[in-house]
Amino acid sequence: MSSCSLRPSYRIVEAVMASATTVTDIHGIGPLGAAIILGHTGDIARFPTSGHYARYTGTAPIAASSGPKQRHRLNPRGNRQLNRALHVAAVTQVRNDTPGRAYYRRKLDEHKTRKEAHCGPSNARSPRPSTGTWSPTPTAELK
């Protein structure tokens, strides 16, 4: 790997460190993931609720019920780059001993399928269920 291809990532790491964000405190989100999240989210205060943010990221489920069977499916809309960064964090949390893994195991114990446990209405990709509140800037918080 050439030193030329490594320079942008060092610049991103420096920019994320300079922002004094707490996003990198979440297990599974490194400097590059944080840069994607911060860049696409901008000011978190523009989202009135966590539901609005979930809709923006594409992590809010869509009802796909038929008759008495209540089901939800993945939302194909939303910001796909942001959704991928959150998905990578969720997979990392499930793979390691974290609150995200405890959530996943709890859903499996409730007889949910692996897909439902990972991508259900309160999915592990949403920052709130698996990590509590987070703030992309030192003063703003997800409501």
Judged by helices, strands and strand pairing, the structural class is mainly alpha
The level of helicity is 40-55%
| Major sheet attributes | 2 strands, antiparallel
Order of helices and strands: HHHEEHHHH
Strand order of the biggest β-sheet? 1-2
Radius of gyration: 16 Å
Multimerization status: single chain
Uncertain segments are 120-143
What is the tally of helical segments? 7
What characteristic shape results from the CA principal axes?
globular
The overall pLDDT average reads 79
Number of strand segments = 2
Count up the domains.
1
Describe how the helices and strands are arranged.
Elements: H1 3-18, H2 31-41, H3 50-57, E1 62-63, E2 72-73, H4 80-95, H5 99-109, H6 114-119, H7 127-131
Antiparallel strand pairs: 1-2
Helix pairs in contact: 1-2, 2-4, 4-5
